[in-house]
Specification:
It contains five helices and two strands, in the order αααβαβα. It is mostly helical. It has one domain: Rossmann fold, CATH 3.40.50.
Length: about 120
């Protein structure tokens, strides 16, 4: 498997990653066949998993927007995963360009992707 330009060096793209599976459920493009295969296997046990993950992301966007428009301008996103569309910084800074966000994740795949993208 050839490593795409967006895939950071130092991550094993032959092993499924929960962060990339989440990206797949959200309709993102930072995942590999190994992640999609693992995600589809998980869906055999919980067919609604993509909808659950999408609902989770939608709630986060609503909560961040509400907090930002209520005067909160600093956010800590723990377990942030791979940056995809609709991340905390995008939602918060759309409402308040001065908003500050810190992303934290223990998954080396998520950290590597975040460092490459953010």
């Amino acid at each position: 498997m050839e490593r795409p330009a967006w895939a950071p060096q130092g991550i094993d793209i032959s092993v499924p990653s929960v962060s990339r599976m989440y990206d797949f459920y959200l309709g993102g493009s930072h995942n590999f066949e190994v992640d999609r295969e693992a995600a589809r296997k998980a869906m055999e046990f919980m067919p609604g998993l993509p909808k659950v993950m999408q609902a989770n992301r939608a709630f986060m966007r609503r909560a961040v927007h509400y907090a930002t428009t209520s005067g909160v301008n600093q956010f800590l996103d723990i377990g942030s995963g791979i940056p995809t569309f609709g991340n905390v910084h995008e939602v918060a800074q759309a409402a308040d360009p001065e908003a500050r966000i810190a992303y934290v994740d223990h998954d080396s795949v998520a950290v590597a992707h975040s460092q490459a993208v953010l």
